[in-house]
User: Which sequence fits this backbone?
């Protein structure tokens, strides 16, 4: 009988071990399912919050007046009280960061634009890098440059379609390429809005002392068209505008729990048009 009792005990222990392993498996599986469900819930909540703030921004852009004269009429709310249009991050609520950039405050990516040449000097491009970049732009815009020309066919005689095309200029380092993409636009421009120019653009296009003072005044909320014109010692020009442009680059990042939702786009705001909102990118 003793051998039979020993075998029975072993069987009981074996069955208990199997049951314990099954219980452990069910526990781990249940925990994983809870984590997956929680992450999906966070992703959904983050996406919904991202859509909410995108709609809030677009509604405000379509309804709020632009320019200094309309600034006093802007209704104070968690968005318009903190936003800016020169690419500086702002946070309307915890977990949400937004960056708005008026394209009129950027430098046109045109080989003949003097502002672009000053920008390349500021980024400290070597003569070879500068020559290849300008030659690439001239080729795409129908110029006479020979570098990068792959065939006898002329260039496209138009602006670049995307900033990603700059990656074809292999001489630029990743950091130079990233910095350049933040400071230029592929869209043609007829005017420049210095009030909405990023800090680096002001530093690249203005004397150092003037740029520092303009940035200081803007950070203090005191930079106006009159103060800017007095600062740079020039009269108003047709190429300078102090009204918010219609093309806005929008970047939103939302963090919720363990999920992150991001979106980057360019919108064309025309409140008085039959199509008041167009997507450019």
Assistant:
């Amino acid at each position: 009988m003793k051998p039979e009792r020993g075998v029975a005990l072993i069987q009981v222990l074996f069955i208990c071990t199997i049951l314990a392993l099954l219980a452990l498996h069910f526990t781990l599986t249940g925990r994983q399912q809870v984590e997956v469900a929680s992450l999906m819930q966070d992703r959904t909540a983050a996406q919904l919050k991202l859509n909410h703030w995108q709609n809030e921004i677009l509604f405000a852009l379509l309804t709020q007046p632009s320019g200094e004269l309309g600034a006093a009429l802007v209704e104070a709310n968690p968005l318009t009280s903190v936003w800016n249009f020169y690419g500086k991050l702002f946070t309307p609520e915890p977990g949400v960061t937004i960056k708005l950039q008026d394209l009129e405050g950027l430098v046109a990516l045109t080989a003949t634009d003097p502002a672009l040449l000053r920008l390349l000097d500021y980024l400290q491009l070597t003569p070879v890098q500068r020559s290849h970049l300008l030659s690439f732009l001239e080729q795409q815009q129908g110029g006479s440059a020979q570098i990068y020309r792959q065939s006898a066919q002329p260039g496209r005689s138009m602006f670049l379609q995307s900033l990603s095309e700059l990656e074809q200029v292999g001489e630029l380092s990743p950091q130079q390429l990233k910095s350049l993409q933040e400071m230029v636009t592929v869209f043609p421009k007829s005017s420049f809005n210095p009030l909405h120019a990023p800090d680096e653009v002001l530093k690249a296009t203005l004397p150092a002392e003037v740029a520092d003072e303009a940035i200081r005044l803007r950070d203090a909320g005191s930079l106006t068209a009159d103060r800017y014109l007095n600062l740079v010692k020039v009269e108003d020009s047709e190429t300078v505008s102090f009204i918010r442009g219609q093309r806005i680059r929008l970047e939103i990042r939302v963090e919720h729990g363990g999920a992150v939702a991001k979106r980057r786009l360019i919108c064309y705001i025309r409140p008085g048009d039959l199509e008041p909102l167009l997507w450019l990118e």
Observations:
- The radius of gyration is 28 Å.
- The CA atoms of residues 190 and 247 lie 13 Å apart.
